[in-house]
Amino acid sequence: MEKTCIDALPLTVNSSEKQETVCIFGTGDFGRSLGLKMLQCGYSVVFGSRNPQKTTLLPSGAEVLSYSEAAKKSDIIIIAIHREHYDFLTELTEVLNGKILVDISNNLKINQYPESNAEYLAHLVPGAHVVKAFNTISAWALQSGALDASRQAILKKENPFSTSSAWLSDSYVALGILGFFLFVLLGITSLPSVSNAVNWREFRFVQSKLGYLTLILCTAHTLVYGGKRFLSPSNLRWYLPAAYVLGLIIPCTVLVIKFVLIMPCVDNTLTRIRQGWERNSKH
């Protein structure tokens, strides 16, 4: 199957109207990545470099000139250069007069300089209009584009105000809190100092009745958490269920057996056996 490179596709629909030219000072990683995206959007890109003849690895379709020549071709100039190399801009004061300078730089340390890079740039070129942009985007993010998995968001078609989702969420939290509270209570009554202070009926009620209630709440808590995912084929990796599904096997088995034992037909017979009833025999 033929694979199409995403970065080679235009990001916008081609228009008959000619797009304006954008100038980028600097041919480093960020400058090249930003220039590629500008070209894909239909803009004309010209790079400014101190050595135009030696500059390589630029996006196809971009033009590279000297700083002064590149600045004359655009009213928007993106400064993709480190602050310590801003000094050459003072020689281009007349060419940059009235231009829009986009500062994309970030300092390596907090309070590294007495003023921000944008303020320093405005001080060097007082006739230009300095703005700040693109300083929160990395060259990797620009190069990866749609291939960057961390940038992908799954479309949620369900209504965020759905009452069913709200009930499931609230039930999950409520069952977990109640189950944990009863579990702590069972642990406290299991301490010798506490169990010796209660009579046999109280201890049996806590350990039996509340024990099964705790098991029901905790199991229901996990069932609500799983919801529709228990039988979903997409969640079965290597054809094995998830860990929380395997953890439900024993508690669900215990609850099913307990449900069978409390049925009247079974419970009455067990009660009679406990009271000493024996099946009639000839001997």
From TrEMBL:
Gene3D superfamilies cross-referenced by the UniProt entry: NAD(P)-binding Rossmann-like Domain (3.40.50.720)
Transmembrane segments: 172-198, 210-226, 238-262
Keywords: Membrane, Oxidoreductase, Transmembrane, Transmembrane helix
Molecular function via GO: oxidoreductase activity
InterPro entries assigned: NAD(P)-bd_dom_sf, P5C_Rdtase_cat_N, STEAP_metalloreductase
Residue span, Pyrroline-5-carboxylate reductase catalytic N-terminal domain: 21-107
Keyword Nucleotide-binding: no
Name assigned to this protein: STEAP4 metalloreductase
Native species: Gorilla gorilla gorilla (Western lowland gorilla)
Phylogenetic placement of the source organism: Eukaryota, Metazoa, Chordata, Craniata, Vertebrata
Gene that produces this protein: STEAP4
